[in-house]
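Recall the central idea of this unit: under ordinary conditions, the amino acid sequence of a chain determines the structure it adopts. In this exercise we apply that idea directly, starting from the sequence alone.
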Amino acid sequence: MDLLLWITIGFIIIGFVVLTSMKKGMESKLAFITTSKEDEESSTKATSIIWWIVSTTAWGIVSMILIVWWFHNHFG
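Accordingly, the structure predicted from this sequence is:
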């Protein structure tokens, strides 16, 4: 197997582990936000949830690009 495949697999597995380990914390932050509407701490927690969603989306897009790139190099 080539290096690009190992980088792709490693990136996907490490990213998945990190995102699932952070999921429970994001759920508790969301529960806190829904119970206390107008609070400065709620705003901070909302910002961290938004950044978690953005980073999850970026991780997914980069994972798809790496997979397509590997298929292009391996079968193309």
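The mean pLDDT is 93.
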